[in-house]
TrEMBL record:
Residues 281-291 have a biased composition (Polar residues). This is Flavodoxin-like fold domain-containing protein. It holds the Pfam family Flavodoxin_2. Residues 272-312 are annotated as: Disordered. Residues 27-194 form the Flavodoxin-like fold domain. PANTHER family: IRON-SULFUR FLAVOPROTEIN, NAD(P)H-DEPENDENT FMN-CONTAINING OXIDOREDUCTASE YWQN-RELATED. The keyword DNA-binding does not apply. The lineage of its organism: Bacteria, Bacillati, Bacillota, Clostridia, Lachnospirales. Residues 336-412 form the SCP2 domain. It comes from Johnsonella ignava ATCC 51276.
Amino acid sequence: MKDVLTANNLHANTKAADNTGLNPALKVLLLNGSPKVEKSNSLHLAKAFCNGIKETCKADITQLDVYRLNIKDCLGCFHCWSKTPGICCIHDDMEYVLAKILESDIIIWSFPLYYFGIPSKLKALMDRQLPLNLPFMEKDSPSGAHPHRYDMSSKKYVFTSTCGFFTAQGNYLAVDEQINHMCGQNTFTSIYCGQGELFNVPQLKKRTDEYLSYVQKAGMEFITYTAISTSTRKKLDELLLPRQMYESMADASWGIDKGNINAKSFTGASPISALKGTSPEHVTSTSGSDTNTDKKSLNQNIKPAKSRSEHSGKGLIFTKQMSALYNPSSWTKDMVLEFNYTDINEKYQILLKNNGYKVIDSDFVKADTIIETPLDVWQKIGLGELDGQEALMQHLFSVKGDFSVMMNWDKYFGIGTDEGKKPDKYSESKASNMNLLLIPWIFIWIFLSINPYAGGISGILLCSVIPFAYIKYRGTLFEYISIFSVSALCIMAITGKPLIYIIPLSYMIFGIIWTASTFNKIPLTAYYSNNDFGGIKAFKNPLFIKTNRILTAAWGILYLITPIWTYFLILSGIGAWIGALNSILPVFMGFFTNWFKNWYPAYYASKG
């Protein structure tokens, strides 16, 4: 690397900067010790922690990817203690790393857990810190130690890591012991998280984002209080998924049938013969014979493992992993989902029960919902590379049978909460209530015809009370327009304007509100029917919007033509009954709406 500073020069420069009395940005060094570099699961934690630091103070953060650096192993020659004090005899990128360690206020170590320890190259970096110590024995250490060459007392250490087990508890004991020796007993802050692979699973982003929001909060608290609060620590210690669900996903990901595991499962040979390989040049047997006479390589001896996907179909692994996300609390009745992967000619079923699920790969039963899709399409949807609703609109897959499962997919297979997540445009907790839209109109249609003055006064009072309902319910623009319109019509009635114009006009205005909303991004009925389809997130479902646009247009047309016969009915002398007469068609339209909102999505999805 260019512009490498030696440890001594850097320490002198740092002290000089301190003496100027300036208040520079906090210097943070992030050591990314994962071989996956930027694709590291553990790095998600470290970056979230750094975001918390940056939100709290001015910080200059440097990230070093250890596996991209040229760092050789320590030779144990102790030149850095005797011949060149403080300077390693190996001239590689470690010179730069040591300089950054000395100049940093906070050092964050990020790494995955490898065999209950740290990755080998990060361990090499840890070993190469020897120049930062003096050779003498620390007299006050209970187990023996070497004192620091420089004053390191003000530095803070943070360790973030993920592992593949369902929990971090009990799996970092060896790591913690090593860190205690390196940094000092209990002088560091750590965030260890099990189920690390989930941070790269798009389907679980809601849950992992929630967790990362608490890691970010931990970073903020670390700067403010130099510690993580008990409440935040409690959140960090929570499992991302329940143990059984996670381990089912993890086991399925390997594509191996646990019931058929034995010593020859992967190699077709005994373990000893399979691992014999080619002996290194300098190795000889105890009898003195040269073991290099066996020139078979390890790759020649070991046969490629046959995965479960090769035995039972490559769609099975994916189906099992998807099934593991099933949320039994969503159960209302036993259901059978069938997946026909058309591109690989494989079929599997998932039986959803109140106490769990079962994947069926033979002896199939009658399915409630059948999804016909290329495996590639469904995998892309699962990975977040393809929007499921857009794919359905483009007929990339089809659904036959009970479509309610698709409309409530997140309810059955959704994991996590919205806690800790920034709200999006539509993120409101209150539900809408269509009665708040309808009641003012129904009131004037009935009572203005009976007594215009009393009905007008009562209508205005009713409109003034409705806003109090928004304490409990989410208001919509259409309700605000209705309150204004109904109040204006009531004033017209109170001031003696003819009902023969007011009543038809009211239906006309109501019809315009409905019809005009069909040209909006979200039509009127969608603001209310979303309560039955997962809430306001249904606004992002194009098929849901299309269905509601059709329904809104149908209702709008009904109310646009209603003024025609209303006018003539009033002329005929039966105006007092106009509200009751005009409610007949809406009753039938209500039945049509309840049928259409379920039929049309299922019909559209079945077209394929």
